[in-house]
Design goal:
Layout lengths: L2 E2 L36 E4 L12 E6 L2 E6 L11 E9 L13 E6 L5 E5 L4 E5 L5 E6 L11 E7 L3 E6 L4 E6 L4 E6 L12 E2 L5 E6 L5 E12 L6 E19 L2 E9 L7 E5 L2 E5 L5 E6 L4 E6 L8 H12 L4 H10 L12 E6 L5 E5 L11 E5 L5 E6 L5 E5 L3 E7 L5 E9 L4
Parallel strand pairs: 1-10, 4-22
Antiparallel strand pairs: 2-5, 3-4, 5-29, 6-7, 7-8, 8-9, 10-11, 11-12, 12-13, 14-15, 15-16, 16-17, 17-18, 19-20, 20-21, 21-22, 23-24, 24-25, 25-26, 27-28, 28-29
Length: 431
């Protein structure tokens, strides 16, 4: 997950008849996925008008945690948001090395329109202009100051600093957005001595994603967002929740341990998380129940009424076939046998991804089967107060990294595995 950093005051949704926002370029607190440049397309967002709170939203309180449940979106189709584009494309199939992308680990759009790409394949940060043309590359493979071995992610620190996490040492490196090296130092997270901390807050503290230790057998991962400071043993746990469901097994040959492996529970829980302006979110996708917490510790839960589809035997068989096909032929039989130890849920998950936009709206991608290429890719948008506002159609195949006030940035991969960074325009006006 990639991160673009900004910590303004928390945006609040207007409770009146409108929720209009003037267009502006901004960077959210956290960002984070075609062989040729496609023709300009227009993707209509399902219904969006700005209406007052209706009876489709109920609010309750449980042990001091607000629960906001929606049965229908607040907005109507007569004032639609739209995604158009792409308006900028970065990447080529063939060309100069600086135009070819591989193993993109972060994308952020700067306030002036420049695009920063963490390209782990070349161990570089690359800066492109607002028109997608290459400007400069920063870093390179190595162990010296300003060099990288294994880029894990990137963070934009306002106003003009880029922070890169390298998991090989672990190490943090800071550059200006003009490419000048500011600092490079080793710093391991207290929750994993072989990785750097996850994200830095504007006050210098660190926000880390902590996951439960893996042990052999069937398990559900436990996730937590934790705040800590260097030189201080005190930690503050903001949010905890269940995540990925899987079976972990150890492999032996002739009585000797040779490694470990794991299989996912078909349609089981996943590690879904998001970071936004002053807030974080966690969910496992198994039910439409998303936990959200602000940096100051206040929590609430976003819920939506949704019809659940039953998991069939054919669904499970297709899931296992697709999963096993990822392994070398000589291991497929063993991997397939491991699924005998897991039990799929009776109903499908409700959602598959979480993102925050620049003002704190929570975007939730609706679940669909991996092999379903006919259904549109839909995201539901929830206001900072938890109300379900509308459903948004996002371009097929776009791995979203950042949602700004008037743009969506992500990575698309063609059938040959070539990556492209694409910027789509997000229109929030009557059209």
């Amino acid at each position: 997950m990639t991160l673009s950093h900004r910590e303004p005051g928390l945006a609040r949704c207007m409770a009146g008849l409108s929720r209009r926002r003037p267009p502006r370029r901004s960077i959210p607190m956290f960002a984070q996925g075609t062989l040729a440049f496609p023709a300009v397309a227009v993707v209509a967002l399902a219904g969006c008008t700005r209406q007052a709170l209706t009876e489709s939203v109920t609010r309750t309180d449980s042990a001091g945690i607000a629960i906001v449940q929606s049965t229908a979106p607040q907005w109507e189709p007569d004032d639609a948001w739209r995604v158009t584009g792409p308006i900028v494309s970065v990447g080529t199939v063939e060309g100069a090395p600086e135009t070819q992308l591989y193993r993109v680990r972060g994308v952020a759009r700067l306030p002036d329109g420049r695009i920063v790409v963490a390209n782990a394949g070349s161990s570089e940060l690359r800066i492109y202009g607002s028109d997608g043309r290459w400007i400069r590359s920063i870093g390179g493979a190595g162990d010296g100051p300003g060099e990288f071995r294994n880029i894990r992610g990137m963070q934009v620190l306002v106003p003009d600093t880029l922070l890169v996490q390298d998991i090989s040492r672990p190490r943090l490196t800071l550059f200006t957005t003009e490419g000048v090296l500011v600092e490079s130092r080793r710093l391991a997270s207290p929750y994993g001595r072989f990785r750097p901390p996850t994200y830095r807050l504007s006050d210098g503290r660190w926000l880390d994603l902590v996951q439960s230790t893996e042990i052999e057998g069937y398990q559900t991962r436990r996730n937590a967002w934790v705040i800590w400071s260097e030189g201080d043993a005190t930690t503050d746990t903001l949010l905890t929740g269940d995540g990925y469901e899987y079976l972990l097994y150890f492999r032996y040959r002739g009585g000797q341990y040779i490694g470990r492996g794991g299989v996912s529970v078909p349609f089981g829980g996943q590690d879904l998380m998001a970071l936004g302006p002053g807030r974080v979110a966690l969910s496992d996708g198994a039910a439409y129940d998303i936990a959200v917490a602000e940096i100051d510790g206040r929590q609430w839960r976003v819920r939506r009424t949704i019809e659940r589809r039953t998991v069939s035997a054919d669904d499970v068989a297709r899931f296992i076939d697709d999963y096993v096909a990822r392994y070398p032929q000589e291991r497929q039989r063993d991997v397939r046998s491991r699924f005998d130890g897991v039990t799929p849920p009776s109903v499908m998950p409700t959602h598959a991804a979480l993102e925050f936009d620049a003002i704190g709206d929570l975007w939730v991608e609706s679940f669909r089967l991996r092999w379903d290429h006919e259904s549109p890719r839909m995201w539901s948008v929830f206001a900072p107060d938890g109300r379900w506002l509308c459903d948004v159609r996002i371009p097929e195949g776009l791995r979203v990294y950042e949602i700004g006030d008037d743009y969506v940035v992500g990575v698309e991969t063609d059938t040959l595995g070539v990556e492209f960074v694409r910027v789509y325009e997000l229109l929030k006006h009557r059209v």
